[in-house]
Amino acid sequence: MKNRDDALVRKMLEYCDETDEAIQTFGDDENLLAENKVFSYG
Prior knowledge:
Mean pLDDT: 86
Strand content: under 5%
Helix content: over 70%
Largest sheet: none
Low-confidence stretches: none
Order of helices and strands: HH
Structural class: mainly alpha
């Protein structure tokens, strides 16, 4: 079970890093984020 926990924590840290990168790139401009093809899901 410990390996699974380690993998989950690593994945959460990866998501945090990706979120931090998006914030650095787009700041608080929702429209820039929404219009970006790399980050948008729509």
